[in-house]
Structure formats: C-alpha cells, structure tokens
Amino acid sequence: MVGTMCLEETARDLGADRVGVADLRAAQGLEPRPEGLLGPYLRAVVCALRLPDASVETCLEGPTPEYAHCYRVANQELDRIGFAVARTLEREGYRALPLPASQLLDRERLVGHVSYKALARLAGLGWQGKSLLLVTPEFGPRVRLGVVLTDAPLPAGRPAPNLCGSCTACADACPVGAIRGVGTESHYRSREEALEFSRCAEACFGFAGRPHIEKPICGVCVRACPWGAR
Ligand code: B12
Fold this sequence. Notes:
Radius of gyration: 17 Å
Strand order of the largest sheet: 1-2-6-3
Distance between the termini: 38 Å
Number of helices: 9
Largest sheet: 4 strands, antiparallel
Number of domains: 1
Number of strands: 6
Helix content: 25-40%
Bound molecules: cobalamin
Structural class: alpha+beta
Strand content: 5-15%
Shape: globular
C-alpha cells in the first residue's frame, strides 16, 4: 500500500512545502462541482506551495506584475505536483484525480471544483483566517494550494486550532475594506460572514484590468498577515 511518506516525497521532490491528507467523510456540506465529484473518493491529498516572500511583499496596495508572475508560476508548479502525485497513486493501483490549481467553474457564483481551503484545513495544514484564506503556522497565507482526490485509504490529518486571536492586520490592510474582522473557531458558514464578498471580488476583477496583471488577484491581505511575515 502506498504510504503518506512516499507521496510526500513525490510532492516535496517537486517543490511542495507542505503535504496533508483530508478525510472526505469530514467534508460533508462542501458543495463540490459537479455535485458528485467527491463520490468515488475517500481522501484529498493537499499540497501547499510557498510563494517567494519578496514577491508577496510587493503587494502594498494591490497586485504587482512581479506578484502576478509568481501567481502564474505557482499554479503551473502545483498542477505539475498534483499530476505527479496522481500518477504515483495510480501506479499503486488507486484512482486519483488531480484538480487544477486555479479554475473558475462558475463565473457568476465565483466558485471552483471544491473549496481547497476547506480541504487544507481538514488535512491539518492550517486554519481559516479572518481574510477567509488558509493560514499556515509556517508561512501564514503565503501559500497556494493544490488538491488530488483519491480512493487510497491514506492516514488523514485533523483540523488545527485557529490562532488569529484578536489580530485584524488583514482587515486593516484590505484596500477596499472588504474584510469584516470576524473570527471563527472552525470555519465560516458563508463567505459573506467573513467578507463583504462583492467588494473583494470586484476589487480583484478590477485589478485584472491593470497592465501585466490579467487575473483577478490582489495579494494585500496575503502580505499583511503577521503569520507570513515572521
Ligand atoms: C473563486 C476564487 C476566487 C474568487 C472569489 C474569492 C472568495 N473570497 O471567495 C476571487 C477571484 C475574487 C478570488 C480572490 C482571491 N483568491 Co481565490 N480562489 C477562488 C477558487 C478558484 C474557488 C473558491 C471557491 O470555490 N470558493 C467556494 C467557497 C464557498 O469556499 P471558500 O471560499 O473556500 O470558503 C468557504 C469554505 O472554506 C468553508 N469551509 C472551510 N472549512 C470547511 C469545512 C466544512 C466541512 C465545510 C462544510 C465548509 C468549510 O468556509 C468558507 C465559507 O463558506 C479557489 C480555488 C479552490 N478551488 O478552492 C481560489 C483560492 C481560494 N484563491 C486563493 C487566493 C490566494 C486568492 C487571492 C489572495 C488572490 C491572489 N492570488 O492574490 C484573493 C483573496 C480573496 C479573499 N480574501 O478571499 C487561494 C487561497 C490560498 C490560501 N492561502 O488560502 C486559492 C485556494 C487558490 C489556490 N490554488 O491556492 N479567488
């Protein structure tokens, strides 16, 4: 049987900074797209790839071309890592589906295949911060996430406690004041609970129109989090 160590080795050799496994039985209520996406699978292997600090630190008021470049490369790297992890699992006789690092499946509702932050949290990689982002103890929110669904019965992690406390650095820094500054012990019931969602989304899509950005990104709440700046 394929071990978590062997998978971690595959992912780490290709550059993943953290690897965790989520038990999909704990993922009830996640509303994947298509609806039956998770059905054939038992676990999600979640990889976190750290963004270079210097690129994140350029995001003072919004995204910069340097950050946009790292965003694009990180997506490619995560797709490569996910593909290799899936092939490793397949060679051991399991079913494994790598999901794209960045793909909007519904442009109106602004959703992807399934919430990677939720899966990363269930895998024990970090907690859901006030910015709604996954905050890792090692790199704060300065990571991008990749997911591979599998029927391999890998040992799964457990959610970590939320360590944001009374900090509101992300909310204070948000260029459009979209982060409400509300904490959660586990996870938010809706995006609206943590964010004025349309403000956040409109700002990100607005930034996409700037030269050399092209994607709906921001990076200011990512930069401001003290867990990443340590
Ligand atoms: C659509 C999308 C966007 C949209 C909408 C953003 C938003 N705020 O929702 C736009 C384009 C605006 C956007 C912006 C950004 N995004 Co974006 N985005 C996505 C994408 C493709 C889909 C998200 C989705 O489907 N959400 C559906 C909702 C319902 O889920 P959610 O947002 O995760 O929140 C819920 C769950 O997490 C739930 N939850 C948590 N745990 C559990 C457990 C259980 C059991 C349940 C039921 C629920 C639950 O609580 C939340 C409220 O309901 C994901 C990739 C992915 N497939 O996850 C990347 C992703 C979330 N984005 C990411 C990033 C980094 C950003 C930006 C910083 C842009 C940038 N790169 O500079 C901003 C940050 C905005 C912000 N503060 O939230 C990263 C986050 C990494 C991290 N460290 O957390 C992701 C994961 C991409 C990746 N591959 O790493 N994004």
